[in-house]
Amino acid sequence: MRVLILGIDGYIGWPLALHLLDRGNEVSGMDNFYTRKRVKEVHSNSAIRIGSMKNRIRKVKEQTGKEISFIRGDVSDPDLMYAAVKATRPECVIHLAEQRSAPYSMIGLKQASETLQKNMIGTINLVYALKDHSPNCHLIKLGTMGEYGTPNIDIPEGFFDVEYMGRRDYLPFPRNAGSWYHWSKVHDSNNLMFANKVWGIPVTDVMQGVVYGTRTDALTRHRSSTRFDIDEVWGTALNRFCAQAVAGLPITPYGKGGQTRGFLSLDDSIQCLTIAAENPPDAGEYRVFNQFDDYYSVMDLAMEVKRIFDQKHTNPAVIQNVPNPRIEKEAHYYNPEMKKLRELGYRPRRSLQDGISEMIKDLERHKKTILSLKDVIMPRTEWKESRGLS
Ligand code: USQ
């Protein structure tokens, strides 16, 4: 299959490219190195060093003889998006090229506006380019479980049966996001549903949970690494907790720590995206997959990291419930459905415990870098204090 990965330089994009290449696909990628640049803007860096795209691709060529074709560019540039689709003629596009940080989108108006614009415009550019040049191409779009928020009822996969005033319908489940970033994904989902309705573009809209981990089978095979962010803006909960334990810094569940989210390992994320690519929707279908392995509260995860860390270290990890910088429920009902990927064969490959042990082990080698980032680890991006015209 000819696959185009938008956001190939990212945490998920790079190991996904290696995995799809190893499965015999023709892989192209596009990236504007946005994450590398924006992470530096908050005085941070990937805790695990990664090579330049040029070197990454050269190494793959040396190892396998196979070429990943790469286009440097921004998906929010319509001419470039059209050129990329025309040049690569994809049968499947996996769109990961969005601003992915909730805290970044809450820093202030500039970041909020950039997140909303770039994410929505990139997706609409892609949809038009596909309609005009590759209308049967399967679009896999990375959305987020955070689109649903934390309702006090079960969360279905995208749609649900509803009865109101004596009439019934099958409708999109209400979205109720918790940051400008998460809302940008909701807007994308709405736009994709509409594009599918009018032009029949086959879409898999993936509602993915929080991804964790340092390893995937493909990264190991290729002796390669992917980025790993741990700062308060770009790092995500479990990855941060492992890095904090390794560096002897407090593990930071926010507020009461009862916030519950779906989580999955990086390896499982790649397995799920591959399953989606290899099992496309019917012609003209828009489908939604909820994508996670299991759900946990952040407090439970903090305790699990401490338990596993303490087994092998004499200096015990410390958990510190810090004031919550976000506006979110800290204790709530959470019961999302996750059936469709399992029906297509998804079986989690890494347990949470193995994932945590591996991360701790891998991050020990990067302790110096983690410590050099210690000033950007404690939360300071406050939802309430988001800056306006300053
Ligand atoms: N949290 C802590 N302590 C920390 C960091 C986070 O308690 O040190 C809490 C947050 O308050 C939140 C939860 O952990 O309740 C998840 O936060 P996160 O930063 O791990 O993840 P989030 O901001 O939701 O976003 C991440 C990715 C995003 C993806 C999303 C999936 O950055 O791209 O879409 O996870 S989901 O969370 O299911 O929406």
Characterization of the model:
There is one protein chain. With 390 residues, this protein is of the alpha/beta class. The protein has a single domain (2-376), classed as NAD(P)-binding Rossmann-like Domain (Rossmann fold), CATH 3.40.50.720. 40% of the residues lie in helices and 16% in strands. It has a seven-stranded parallel sheet, sandwiched between helices. α1 (13-22) links the parallel β1 and β2 (26-31). α1 crosses α10 (266-278) and α4 runs parallel beside α6. It starts with a strand and ends in an 18-residue tail after the last helix. The structure holds sulfoquinovose-uridine-C1,5'-diphosphate (USQ). Sulfoquinovose-uridine-C1,5'-diphosphate (USQ) is lined by residues 100-102, 144-146, 182, 208-210, 236-237, 240, 252-254, 259, 261-262, 298, 326, 328.
Which molecules are bound besides the chains?
sulfoquinovose-uridine-C1,5'-diphosphate
Name of the CATH class: Alpha Beta
Order of helices and strands: EHEHHEHEHHEEEHEEHHEHEEHHHH
The largest sheet, given as strand count, sense and whether it forms a barrel, is:
7 strands, parallel
CATH superfamily: NAD(P)-binding Rossmann-like Domain
How many domain regions? 1
CATH architecture: 3-Layer(aba) Sandwich
By oligomeric state, this entry counts as single chain
**Per DSSP, what share of the residues sits in E-state strands of 2 or more residues?**
15-25%
- How many H/I helical runs? 14
Distance between the terminal alpha carbons, to the nearest Å? 48 Å
How is the CATH topology named?
A: Rossmann fold
Write the layout of secondary structure elements.
Elements: E1 2-6, H1 13-22, E2 26-31, H2 34-41, H3 53-64, E3 69-72, H4 78-88, E4 92-95, H5 102-105, H6 109-133, E5 138-144, E6 159-164, E7 167-172, H7 180-199, E8 203-208, E9 210-212, H8 217-221, H9 237-247, E10 260-265, H10 266-278, E11 286-291, E12 294-297, H11 298-312, H12 340-343, H13 352-364, H14 367-372
Parallel strand pairs: 1-2, 1-4, 2-3, 4-5, 5-8, 8-11, 9-10
Antiparallel strand pairs: 6-7, 10-12
Helix pairs in contact: 1-10, 4-6, 6-7, 9-11, 9-13, 11-13
Bound molecules: sulfoquinovose-uridine-C1,5'-diphosphate.
Sulfoquinovose-uridine-C1,5'-diphosphate (USQ) is lined by residues 100-102, 144-146, 182, 208-210, 236-237, 240, 252-254, 259, 261-262, 298, 326, 328.
